Amino acid sequence: MEQNQKASSTKILLHTCCAICSGYPISLLKDMGYTVVCYFYNPNIYPETEYQKRLEAEKTLCAHFGVELIVADYEPETYYEYVKGFENEPEKGLRCDKCFELRLKSAAKLAKELAIEEFTTSMVISPHKNYEKLTSIGQRIADDYGLKYFSLNFRKNDGFLKTNMISKELNLYRQNYCGCKFTLDI
């Protein structure tokens, strides 16, 4: 779907990794005509105090845009079990793929439960994440759940700059690492 096409008020579930990354995707999807439902599921974030900071920023952002926010339980034990055996993988390696898969599966499951036919993730806006890899994982999961993965590269048209401007305007918490304890140990 081209960015200038309208979604005609279709609902879309946006998995949000953090407020910094989700500002522009929320804005753009709304401009495209979507009713955005945000889903904050990030069991990878360590420590819990960091998780809470990111969640509070996401709440502020969603209130600003007037979009629904669904917050999953914080369950780091699920994340550690899911990436077991990949703890020593380098950043952007197989551990990250597993982490993406865990969060996107959860998003797809919720979308299915809510009868929302499309989902996507704000993670793709980050220049630190591989758009093609995330899109491939998202599309595979969408196929498994009988859904559509909306594969829009939010980085295009200065998306990363725009999302940073939104976060600065709202004075949102800005993290300096992806979130998992393994990146802190590097």
What this model shows, in words?
With 186 residues, the chain is of the alpha/beta class. It has a single domain (11-184), classed as Rossmann fold (3-Layer(aba) Sandwich). It contains 7 helices and 5 strands, in the order E-H-E-H-E-H-H-E-H-E-H-H. The protein has helices at residues 19-31, 48-65, 76-82, 94-113, 131-145, 159-169, 181-184, and strands at residues 11-15, 35-40, 68-71, 118-121, 148-149. Strands 3-2-1-4-5 form a 5-stranded parallel beta sheet, sandwiched between helices. Helix 2 links the parallel strand 2 and strand 3. Helix 4 packs parallel to helix 5. The chain is globular, with a radius of gyration of 15 Å. Residues 1-6 have low confidence and may be disordered.
Question: Which structural class should the secondary elements be placed in?
Answer: alpha/beta
Runs with pLDDT <50, length 5+?
1-6
- What is the top-level CATH class? Alpha Beta
Number of domains: 1
Mean pLDDT reading? 94
| Number of alpha- plus pi-helical segments | 7
- Under the CATH scheme, which architecture would be assigned? 3-Layer(aba) Sandwich
Q: How do the SSEs run, as a string of H and E?
A: EHEHEHHEHEHH
**Strand percentage:** 5-15%
Describe the sheet with the most strands: 5 strands, parallel
Globally, the shape reads globular
Name given to the CATH homologous superfamily: HUPs
Distance between the termini: 39 Å
> What is the number of strand segments?
5
| Spatial strand sequence of the major β-sheet | 3-2-1-4-5
> Which bin fits the share of residues in helices?
40-55%
**Remind me, CATH topology?**
Rossmann fold
State the oligomer: single chain
Radius of gyration: 15 Å
